[in-house]
Amino acid sequence: MGPRRKPRDLRGRQSRIGRLARFYLEGFIHVLAYRLMVPLTILYGLLIIAYLAEPAFGTALKIATAVIWVLWTPQLFEVAKGLALAWSRGMAFGNLNEEFAHLYRTRYGKRRGLYLSLPFIVMAVWAAGFILMIARWQP
Fold first, then answer.
1. Residue of 119, 101, 99 whose CA lies nearest to 110
2. Per-residue DSSP letter, 138
3. All structural domains of the chain with their residue ranges
4. How many CA within 13 A on the CB side of residue 28?
5. For the chain, which terminal residue's Cβ has fewer other Cβ atoms within 10 angstroms, N or C?
6. 16 in helix, strand or coil?
């Protein structure tokens, strides 16, 4: 009996996030933003400490906050979409068979539109907060 071969993923190595762009653009954006956020969050923490020590770093902190805010947007959208999917039992953003979806709507109600709009409502509130932060924060 020879050694067992590991199954090969035809999409490429897991560490190569570019492979996602070909078949799952939403996932690629999510992973790319996450990978950028990890080192930027460390730098952001250092910038906050520098700002606390010297208020002259206020403008740099505002710019960094805006960049971090924008990079968090895909993460927040995906979380809101996932919650809508879970709360609607797969009726929103799910790939349910039409008969099964009809049975679910009959049994659990017809609030699918509310669940479909949830991520976009969250994005509207998120964008309003971003605009307020840019307009009102005076470093």
1. 101
2. -
3. 17-136
4. 10
5. N
6. coil
